[in-house]
Amino acid sequence: MSDQSETEESQPMGETGVPTTFDTVMERRRTLIGWARHLLGGLDMSWRHVLVFAVVTGVVTGLVNEVPLLYDTSFRDIAVTPEWWVLFGMVVACNCKGPGEAALKCGVFFLVSQPIVYVVEMPWLGYFPWEYYSYWFVLSLFTFPAGALAYLAKRQDRVGSLLLAIPCVVLVVLGAGFVFKVSYSFPHHLLSAVFCFGQVVVLVLALKNTMDDRLVALGIALVVTVVSITILFVSPPTSSVGITIDAGDADGSGTWSCQLDDPSFGTVEVEGDRVKVTTSHVGSTRLVCTDENGDSIAYDVTMAPSRVMSVSQE
After folding, report:
1. 188 within 8 A of 72, measured Cβ to Cβ
2. Of 44, 95, 206, 216, which is the most exposed, with the fewest CB atoms less than 10 Å away?
3. What is the CATH number of the domain that holds 260?
């Protein structure tokens, strides 16, 4: 048979013997699922590979976090939010041979990779940021049981579907947050939003073989997505800005009372000469601080559409 005939026979065919768009799409879908299944079960996840994987991801993340051009973009989110680390953890756990091995290797992967991120950043920071690493260290401890659960999520039953729903829920909550950010800073974080929701679909299609099991995990993820997005847009998260009142601008003992011209704009907290304004509303208002002698200082407080707050003295 000629090479041309072999090529034609390898193409997906419709009922007429001619490749159709639907056949092509289904073939590509099968190829994508095949790649995903290889990534989530066809790799050799030896201890050497786990350690190399941890070092590489730690170094890359640390370098990416120090590129100013990438600030507030999807490309830097790997150093800020855990959507990529969910994928890394799933890759490590799903390529192990049992839940115990998955727990150990997943936990070690995070214990090694996270401090490397900050070690790589030290030339720019000038110190090791223990206050940030302590947070990730605590999270890393939770990846030991999370690794075992991720391995068990491969089970082809309802229990496996419910366990798979756990990382899916984490991803859709993160994705909802990115959707909210995209709504006021488009196109920033758009790729991260797509990545989160796309990862959920790929995980479910790759790890579940039956439609019933897939629907359980996807159904839970869909409900959480709708609830998360609704909460974010109905009751947006707050932002805060702090100022220090210059005691030289007014006489008195430094005891101040502060209020906003528009009380519905947000809340005001005063501690000595430190003032914090918190709001979830885009807009601006006037903050007036008065000491015990009646001397006042006024500030303009603004929440920009980017949800970044600023304050300036009048």
Report:
1. yes
2. 44
3. 2.60.40
The answer to whether position 26 is within a domain reads: yes
Tell whether 1 is covered by a domain: no
Q: Which tokens is 60 given?
A: 């890359």
Structural contact between residues 213 and 198, judged by C-beta atoms closer than 8 angstroms: no
In three-state secondary structure terms, 225 is helix
In the sheet that holds 239-244, the strands lie side by side as 239-244, 274-279, 267-271
pTM here is: 0.77
Q: Rounded to an integer, what distance in angstroms lies between the CA atom of residue 266 and that of residue 271? A: 17
Residues 157 and 249 in one domain: no
Question: Which residues touch 246 (CB under 8 Å, ≥6 apart)?
Answer: 297
For residue 24, give Cα distances in angstroms to 28, 95, 211. Answer: 6, 30, 21
* β-strand partners of 291: 256
**Tokens in use for 114?**
């996270």
- Domain around 279: 239-313
pLDDT in tens, 140-199: 999 999 999 999 999 999 999 999 999 999 999 999 999 998 988 888 899 999 999 999
Structure-token pair, residue 310: 């600023």
